[in-house]
Write a structure and sequence with these properties.
This protein has 14 helices and 15 strands. It is α/β, with parallel strands linked by helices and 406 residues long. The protein has three domains: 10-85, 2-Layer Sandwich (Alpha-Beta Plaits); 97-176, Alpha-Beta Plaits (2-Layer Sandwich); 180-367, 3-Layer(aba) Sandwich (Rossmann fold). The protein has a seven-stranded mixed β-sheet with strand order 12-11-10-9-13-14-15, sandwiched between helices. The longest helix has 15 residues, at 148-162.
């Protein structure tokens, strides 16, 4: 007997309803009896509501299977829709990328704007995954059909208008490999600027802060500005460095970021225009593998107002990144750099992924992506790591995470 001319080649089965044990197994027992092949499968649970989508090959008597699936769904209190088709749901290979959207909050208007721009570009959203719902909302879209650079340019502009963050990255194996994280320290890993904290002991904090701000905006040569500021610290007792270290506060999520990625084999480096009397201790405390910073000269227990050796400036940060990458044995494309100031620009450009973290406008404009929420561990969502995975790993290690609001 020949196949009917209108017989479908595939069936898309969508099951919805209140989540309960046994839904998926009930549906698949029915499909198994019909001897169909599974082509694609997705399942999500949202507020205890389950959505199960199954794409299968259509048997000769597809109407009989339709009736059987409907009966099975009704027996467990679920609704079902069955759509006939001919496609096999192949994802387009061209322009495959991950688009991560982060907001605190994430308004529906922003999601509408971002998905609208994706559609306008001619790209297709193949999959949507929630990465986090607290303390920020992070959603990842798997997109295909448009070159990554073109899509990034479109979405970055829309993100600025919508007041949210977006990262557009190529879909590749590199995202799942062991990588090196290179971080700035002042106003990135920690809150505030160490040199200003030291300057408070010399009574010149306001003057130093003014020069620091201009340097971070790129208005002053970094080395010149550093030497100018350090000169104002002459005579400060060395004991002030201990007081500064004890007063340092890490940015929220910093410990979680380092702890989680170290579990996955990542390596970390601190590259700072600050001072190794502070950064080396931070690195030791957090278990960071490499650190490079400037060294304050100390004579007879007091700062001399000079730095020893070459200054770690904008070019020096990029050179340190390359040196650490070579030592770890990873290409620069496998390096993630995080910074906030103009002296971080060469470092961000040298990395495979440069992230402007609560950065100056000139830095946000030049970086691959910007993160403006106050949580450093939000960067892990850009790497495909969800909040649930982070918390599960912490729980296994006996670390208690505060429960999110209901």
């Amino acid at each position: 007997m020949s196949e009917q001319p209108d017989a479908p080649k595939t069936l898309l089965i969508t099951v919805t309803g209140k989540d309960r044990p046994g839904v998926t197994s009930t549906i698949f027992r029915t499909l198994a009896r019909a001897g169909v092949e599974v082509i694609d499968l997705e399942q999500i649970v949202l507020r205890r509501r389950l959505v199960l989508g199954v794409l299968v090959t259509a048997p000769r008597d597809w109407k009989k299977l339709r009736d059987q699936v409907q009966d099975a769904a009704e027996s467990i209190g679920m609704s079902v829709e069955i759509e006939r088709g001919t496609g096999d749901n192949r994802t387009r290979r061209e322009g495959r990328c991950h688009v991560t959207v982060i907001g605190s909050p994430l308004p529906a208007s922003a999601v509408a704007a971002m998905t609208g721009r994706i559609a306008d570009s001619g790209a297709n959203i193949d999959r949507i995954v929630r990465m986090a719902r607290y303390p920020v909302t992070a959603i990842e879209f798997h997109v295909s059909g448009v070159p990554v650079e073109r899509l990034r340019a479109i979405l970055v502009k829309e993100a600025v208008r919508s007041g949210i963050d977006v990262a557009v990255q190529p879909a590749s194996l590199l995202r799942h490999s062991m990588r090196l994280i290179v971080m700035d320290v002042d106003s990135t890993l920690i809150q505030g600027e160490v040199i200003e904290m030291i300057a408070a002991h010399a009574g010149c904090e306001a003057e130093v802060a003014r020069v620091t701000e201009a340097a971070m905006r790129g208005e002053l040569d970094f080395e010149q500005s550093l030497r100018q500021r350090v000169a104002l610290l002459k005579g400060v007792p060395e004991s002030a460095l201990e007081e500064v270290y004890e007063s340092i506060q890490l940015n929220p999520g910093a410990r979680t970021l380092v702890r989680t990625l170290r579990r996955l084999g990542y390596r970390f480096a601190l590259v700072s225009g600050g001072f190794n009397q502070i950064t080396d201790r931070i690195a030791a405390e957090l278990g960071i593998h490499y650190a490079q910073a400037n060294q304050l000269e100390v004579v007879d227990g007091h700062l001399t107002g000079e730095v020893i050796g070459e200054v770690v400036d904008r070019a020096g940060k990029a050179a340190a990144l390359r040196r650490f990458a070579a030592d770890v044995g990873v290409p620069e494309s496998a390096v993630i750099a995080i910074g906030d100031g103009a002296n971080d620009l060469d470092m961000l450009n040298a990395a495979g992924l440069g992230i402007a973290y609560n950065a100056k406008p000139v830095v946000q404009a030049a970086a691959d992506t910007a993160v403006n929420v106050p949580y450093l561990d939000a960067i892990m969502y850009l790497l495909g790591i969800s909040r649930e995975e982070i918390e599960a790993a912490d729980a296994a290690a006996g670390i208690v995470t505060p429960a999110p609001p209901v």
